[in-house]
Amino acid sequence: MASAQADPSPETRQQQFEQGVAISLHLWLSLTVAVQASLGGPASEDKRDWFAGAVIDMFPSFVDLAKPRGANTSSTQRQQQQPRDPDADDIEATLLQVMWDEFETNVDDESEVEVADRILKARAHCAAGSFEYVEDLRRRWLATKGKAIEIHVEDGGDQETDWESDDDDDDDDDVQMDEAPALVAAPKERPPPEVDEDGFTKVTRKKR
Q: Global pTM?
């Protein structure tokens, strides 16, 4: 009789979680528009990859969590020392802050709530050793292949974004959807944003 399938390794769980975060950001329309419009400068795509790494670094690694704790440490002390995942509010705040600081984009449609929810769901599923949710995100991402973002400007300056089919694929500009999104490790320290006397972060230009 075949033995039960072994639980996924911590390395596999971490890899799947990282892909879940990267794909969640690639599915975020507000970020996709900012990248396509180069609102983060010529390196906007690289910034998105760094963005994913920064979000991943908010969570303790499954590999680190699997490392044995001190034998002389009580179970209560181990629980207190166990690193905790960020909550939805922390993730949402980080998403909005990076969008403003790095892409000069003020996200006011509350889409960051959905992105944070996807990230937390991917985390929970990977922690349980199930990767079907991440695979579902990957299928949704692959379904966007050959589509571009259409921006509708309404009266009053409001914008709406939709996916639209694009038969004329440009391999130089489009993300290769048959591969996993790239990840760039977030640096341990980033220079603090310049803040004026009123407490607002200074930027060179704002989203129109």
A: 0.71
